[in-house]
């Protein structure tokens, strides 16, 4: 390589050195600077979108708090329905009614047996029972199924 370089005329060496320097600058631009600049712009766009979401959330937060406090005051007895009725209606709305194997009244609450129910749907429904309907889950036993994300469950739902 040195022999080849030494064999070049001084003008050819100057042109080759300038070409290599230009190539090095272009490669640095493409490999280092451009990805950093693109990522920076993407982060700016994301910050703008998240700022808009935050502004919207702050705007409706009072309304959400009012609704939550109104729903938190609603208990099964205040709503005029029993725990059994509330469980049946909310399970139907959540799309897991078909997975209920058995419902048995127990005290003021209800004991339920689920077979082959989606775990995500079950947990979401249980959260709704507690947060929206004022019920509590006193006992919960979950058994894993051979299908991913599917479980069998036994639980006791009672008023707070």
TrEMBL record:
Keywords on record: Cell inner membrane, Cell membrane, Membrane, Protein transport, Transmembrane, Transmembrane helix, Transport
Subcellular location, record wording: Cell inner membrane
Family matches, as Gene3D superfamilies: General secretion pathway protein M, EpsM
GO cellular component terms, semicolon-separated: plasma membrane; type II protein secretion system complex
Keyword presence, Protein biosynthesis: no
GO biological process terms on file: protein secretion by the type II secretion system
Topological type in the membrane: Single-pass membrane protein
One Pfam family recorded for the sequence: T2SSM
Coiled-coil blocks: none
Record field: transmembrane: 14-33
Domain of life: Bacteria
Keyword Transmembrane helix: yes
UniProt record similarity statement: Belongs to the GSP M family.
Job description of the protein: Inner membrane component of the type II secretion system required for the energy-dependent secretion of extracellular factors such as proteases and toxins from the periplasm.
Name of the protein in question: Type II secretion system protein M
Record organism: Halopseudomonas xinjiangensis
